[in-house]
Prior knowledge:
Order of helices and strands: HHEEEEEE
Radius of gyration: 14 Å
Number of helices: 2
Largest sheet: 6 strands, antiparallel
Shape: globular
Amino acid sequence: MSEFRPPNENTILTLRRLLSAEFPGNTALIAQLPHIEVRNIDAEGSLEIRVTEDNKACVHSTVPVEASYSDTGNSDPFAPRVRILLHVRNGLMHELEFFKDDGSRILREPSDGELQVEVNCPST
């Protein structure tokens, strides 16, 4: 496993896009962004996240929000998509998981405008 490092710009943009959706705890998770370090944990680009300041979020799911995009530019609704899941553990961002529906290699990172975000625990 690699060492923890500051997140790159694309990681921050992806997290900001995920956290732009409204769900319980998103404000506290946004406040964690300036205080994160990441490290690669797999070949797909998944990242373990370490929050260096204890500002816990009250979320209703361990994966409160996720996003998807096509890494081939294919508009076919049945084509495999890349999934990005934000995992939260004990109120802190813990992992940004990347995987492709069909298990094939991810061809590229997303651009900000193409992420389709889905909330798993909507506000009540």
